[in-house]
């Protein structure tokens, strides 16, 4: 170990243990100071009474049958599409009368086609979506009124409704033509990207609430790890030349800091992964193939300051959650300076972010719990939909007017599903 690194490490540990003591002292209620991190910093709306959602009833081959075939879809990071469906069926915002609906929801499980290894392949999703839209547009009058502008779809793939896991291909495809007027509820978020349509709602990926709960350790456990990361640095199989995967940012983390004692980073996924995050000050959340990953949710739940390395990322519920205050944003080209950046953060800033992270309403907003809870991710989605009301009158088409092109897109997508 080089001397300077040892020095840094000690500084970090000392200032960090100082932080902990302060944290205890400062958690006492203070009569005048408004402690940021108290509930209220997360936009705390109740959507009930502000919107009505009609849930189309589709043949089970679009949803339940697919899940029966592969129950792993209930626990993977794309599971929000299933839980959102279940939630809406029992939600007080659901209406059985489509005439009074503000929003129409089509329950299609487009990410539940898994390889034996559990990877969701989106290749059939466009055909499946197209088939579902065909069905609702011929069986109900509501799609044709707006061609989907008052409809929303949950599309939690890597690149949302672009339906490809590789960015180049996703960009080439663009958003499925039939969904170009709909509101897309998706995990993918990156500014100025063809796969993020204006008005889309960016949501957190699904991370299993009970499983995370089961790994909680006492909240006063010292955070003795300075920087933590587990995951791939290279994806040699899909990116043999390097530099394309994670736009090189993960490789830069590894190459610069693999021997730095402040950085606990590795490709090995230990059984103590969740516990380790609770022992860490900073958790790296770099982009992978897509800018988002479940690490953001895990970091928030485990009170580890997310270090977001994904230029132009749009974070979940960005209008409701003060991400700039909670997390830390490091631009991809600055990864080689990550050690200096992180060790220069004043302890009081770390403390404030940790307090914000301790706010249960931030954590709640990241989760899709069963049963649903006030302020959880389901409610944040409904809030996002409610904020888009009333619909602009120009979304309603004149009788017989058509805007969408039903034959646009790759020919393969036009085949029946
Ligand atoms: C909606 O429009 C399509 C043609 O674009 C038509 O085939 C279909 O019958 C219409 N749906 C209804 C319910 O009228
Ligand atoms: C619809 O898209 C197809 C395929 O790109 C194109 O050939 C056709 O001209 C388009 N139709 C209209 C009306 O724009």
From TrEMBL:
Membrane topology of the entry: Single-pass type II membrane protein
Keywords: Glycosyltransferase, Golgi apparatus, Signal, Signal-anchor, Transferase, Transmembrane
One BP annotation, GO: glucuronoxylan biosynthetic process
Record-annotated membrane-spanning stretches: none
Ranges for domain Exostosin GT47: 50-345
Signal peptide: 1-23
Compartment list: Golgi apparatus membrane
InterPro entries, per the entry: Exostosin, Exostosin_GT47
Pfam family, one: Exostosin_GT47
GO cellular component, one term: Golgi membrane
A Gene Ontology molecular function term of the record: glucuronoxylan glucuronosyltransferase activity
Record-stated family: Belongs to the glycosyltransferase 47 family.
Name the UniProt record assigns to this protein: Exostosin GT47 domain-containing protein
Organism: Chenopodium quinoa (Quinoa)
């Amino acid at each position: 170990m080089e001397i300077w690194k040892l020095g840094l490490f000690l500084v970090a540990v000392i200032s960090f243990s100082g932080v902990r003591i302060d944290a205890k002292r400062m958690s006492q209620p203070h009569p005048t100071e408004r402690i940021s991190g108290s509930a209220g910093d997360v936009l705390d709306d109740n959507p009930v009474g502000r919107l009505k959602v009609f849930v189309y009833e589709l043949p089970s081959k679009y949803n339940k049958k697919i899940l029966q075939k592969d129950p792993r879809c209930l626990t993977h990071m794309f599971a929000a599409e299933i839980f959102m469906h279940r939630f809406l069926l029992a939600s007080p915002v659901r209406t059985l009368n489509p005439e009074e609906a503000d929003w129409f929801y089509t329950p299609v499980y487009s990410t539940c086609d898994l390889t034996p290894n559990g990877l969701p392949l989106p290749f059939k999703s466009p055909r499946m979506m197209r088939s579902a839209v065909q069905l609702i547009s011929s069986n109900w009058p509501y799609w044709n009124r707006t061609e989907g502008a008052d409809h929303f779809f949950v599309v939690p793939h890597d690149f949302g409704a672009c339906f490809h896991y590789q960015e180049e291909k996703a960009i080439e495809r663009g958003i499925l033509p039939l969904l170009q007027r709909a509101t897309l509820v998706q995990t993918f978020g990156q500014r100025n990207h063809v796969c993020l349509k204006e008005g889309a709602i960016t949501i957190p990926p699904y991370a299993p609430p009970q499983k995370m709960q089961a790994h909680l350790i006492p909240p006063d456990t010292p955070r003795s790890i300075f920087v933590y990361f587990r995951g791939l640095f290279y994806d040699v199989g899909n990116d043999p030349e390097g530099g394309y995967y994670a736009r090189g940012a993960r490789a830069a983390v590894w190459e610069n800091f693999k021997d730095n004692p402040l950085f606990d980073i590795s490709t090995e996924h230990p059984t103590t992964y969740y516990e380790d995050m609770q022992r860490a000050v900073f958790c790296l959340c770099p982009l992978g193939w897509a800018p988002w990953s479940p690490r953001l949710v895990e970091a928030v739940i485990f009170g580890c300051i997310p270090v977001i390395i994904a230029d132009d990322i749009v974070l979940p519920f960005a209008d409701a959650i003060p991400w700039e205050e909670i997390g830390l944003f490091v631009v991809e080209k600055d990864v080689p300076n990550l050690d200096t950046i992180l060790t220069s953060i004043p302890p009081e800033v770390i403390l404030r972010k940790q307090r914000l992270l301790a706010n249960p309403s931030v954590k709640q907003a990241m989760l899709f719990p069963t049963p649903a809870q006030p302020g959880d991710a389901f409610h944040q989605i409904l809030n996002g939909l409610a904020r888009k009301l009333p619909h602009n009158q120009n979304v309603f088409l004149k009788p017989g007017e058509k805007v969408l092109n039903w034959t646009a897109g790759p020919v393969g997508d036009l085949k029946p599903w």
